[in-house]
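Summary for the funding panel

The consortium committed to producing paired sequence-structure records for every protein in the target list. Below we show the first two records in order, beginning with the earlier of the two.
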Amino acid sequence: MLVAALAPSHLLCMVPMAWAARAAGHEVLVVGRAEVAQAARRAGLPAAEAAELPVPAPGTEAAAPTAGTDPGPAGLAQALTSGQRRAFAGRAWPAGGHPWQVRVGRVVDGFLAAARQFRPDLVLCDPIEFTGLVVAAVLDVPAVVHRWGGPDSLSADAIARARALLAEPAARLGATGGLPEPALTLDPCPPSLRLDAPADVRPVRFVPFNGAQPIPPWARRAERRRVCVTYGLFGSQAAQSGADFIEGGDLAARLDAVARALLPHTGLEVVMTVPQAVRPLLKPLPDRFRIVERAPLDALFGSCDLVIHHGGTGTAMTACARGVPQLLLPPPHPALADCAAGLARRGVGMVLQGADQTDPGALAAAVTGLTAGGDGAAGTGFREQARALAAEIAAQPAPAELVPVLASLV
């Protein structure tokens, strides 16, 4: 099984399935850009790094993305020059080529080289690592799409669009029949959260994996009620790039607003994950605020009464699996907005939008509602709904149960 992921955060939700396949005696190789290969090795998985072709010099229309970074699907068109749309590193694309064709073109040679050496029987890919679909088509092996786990409308739409947009480039690489439908779609999103029909996907249990890191003694047990504030890898990457947090203010301003909202809640212990670049920008906080660069979320959330975050699927579903209510502060990104809205509909959390996300008063009121037994769906408390959702997740088939299903596709 060849595993293809666009980014380290996208790989994490697939690691339990990769482990299950290895434990069953199958061979597994993760292929991806440098940061994906590094994340795979930290997770104990074999990995091959796919080199990226050099990016042409930026034109006057827009700045070209630098190696190792990609804007989200909604912003790709604005990030590419007209020269890049016409051709890329000597490989001719269709006239007016789509940015997704360019993105795949940057790495497809490296992916194919690793795949031809490994000779996979099946490709397991992230919904927006379309290179995995191309590799499966060129090698004529089944492709299985592994969704991220939260409610989203992006992944299904992206696959359909990618099949049309990448058919001609894939044919030039040897996939004469274009890009076929994925043989199977695995969805770790529990049925009550899904946005599409259950018949369209195969359910699999969401098993939290937040990376290989030590678990400090304080993580599993709290002396008082505990709140975790985290913006995940999404926030860390924004801080490292020096960019604003998509829109509406930088990460330091967002963390400062949340901290001020929590100050009056003296009965709460607060754990905040803060990137090193942002930490000096925070104002001094009382001792009950524990500031760390990163934390083992799976272990930590078991001791939490509330998680405040940006709507990232990994963070959201880890909290769901541990039965913890959530306060969601999503930036205007479709995947994050879908996840936040879905959790609010399910009654396991509340969503703040726009200026409310940096308004200490609005934040404090939401924290009070979520930690003081406020009502969620069907007149039950957020905590009860969160525990019910955790039970629903636990009842889904474990990754090990799906390995024979994947083998049957070969």
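The next record, for a separate protein in the list, is shown here:
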Amino acid sequence: MNDVKGFCDQRFEAVRAALAALLRQDDVGASAAVYIGGEPVVDMWGGYADADRSVSWERDTIVGVNSTSKNMTALCALILADRGELDLSAPVAAYWPEFADAGKQNVLVRHVLSHTAGLPDLSGPRAVEELYDWESVTAALAAQAPEWEPGTAAGYHALTFGFLVGEIVRRITGRSLGEFFAEEVAGPLGADFHIGLSTEHDHRVAPLIPPPSLTDEYAASAPPGPDGTRRDNARVAIRVKDANSVAWRRAQIPAVNGFGNARSVALAQSVLANRGSAGGVRLLSPRGCEPARQEVFRGEDRVLGAPMCWTAGFGKFGNTFGWGGWGGSVVASDPDSRMTVAYVMNQMIDRNQQEDNRGMEIIMAAYSGLH
């Protein structure tokens, strides 16, 4: 069954064709969405929610999107900044006084958002279960010294990004990142995206499927750095089996454990592409959206081992900004065309073994519809 279901504006038939082709080739189940001017022009899904191909992927199927979650975490920070409750140029310690320890008094909020804070790894936790203790992880980060002078270099903050931004949000609002997102973003927009998933949604979750020929012991890993060495020994090894566990769903690890589908990802992020509003709901002013596209750092990323351009919370690629997740999900926003494109799937691909252009194929198909 490779039938694609849902809605597609006739201008974007290329997106329907691209999703159908992916479902015939690499994908088991997937969804794709395109928003223009804060309104949906594509909302499609198809395939299966399970590896046995016995359960259909439905309109309300959701899946863990891994680091695509970072886009939602960053959006929360930008909303607070737009309200005047958070200054991106202020020291983190202005909101989180303990964070000034170990020479971090000059780490700015924008350093945290742009992966330039010098805290790419957690010095303490080694087991996934330790990530579920928010107080312990954030206390360890507050005590940790930066690896480089903040702001002078970038190194992808794979796990720490969410704890750092999330604790800043918690100190300002008294709410966890997941609570703030639910009340200030998902709720007003009607976006079916969750950071910290409650029990009633479990039946809708499509488990992640490890890459072909690999098992659920397959773990996330950083690519080799510029000197050819890997940083994996300094990070918690997160396996597919961890990301599929109930404990993972219940936790709040805002950098990596969001759950949603392409519709909810695109809807929430379309706010930033559409001058602060989507579906008639305004979350930010037009000016409040600007940090998402303004370059903070450009150069070699020490963790990714590749040239990167980071804004306040997003990777920037030409005129677009956004980010993707381990295994293949992705979202990209283009403020010039007011377009946001999202792709979410359950079949993971290991980029060390196979090229993964699935998300890019959906994005390019969406661009063809613009013209």
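Regarding this second record: Residues 189 and 281 are 6 Å apart (CA to CA). The first strand starts at residue 4 and ends at 8.
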